[in-house]
Write a structure and sequence with these properties.
The chain has 4 helices and 3 strands. The protein has 116 residues and is α/β, with parallel strands linked by helices.
Amino acid sequence: APGHRDFIKNMITGTSQADCAVLIVAAGTGEFEAGISKNGQTREHALLAFTLGVKQLIVGVNKMDSTEPAYSETRFEEIKKEVSSYIKKIGYNPVAVAFVPFSGWHGDNILEPSTK
């Protein structure tokens, strides 16, 4: 349900039939924080997926090109740590969750491994 609450119903319908969920979070400063905040959509979507029976999760960290500096490993690890902490609380095993940094805008780490 990309970024809009009006799509939650569609997200629930699709998720209820899924074996695996891909949770996309934005790496940009402020964007990630908004999504992971108490009422943020990142939290909401992860919780809904687990509640609906999706036990396998992949986390895609998008907009790595917009971090400071671009493609910041420190920022990626910060996001990974915070998301791992939350998903563990709701029932996922963070060790079994793949975290994939990428840039949709530039196509980095989408079809081929990125050098960045």
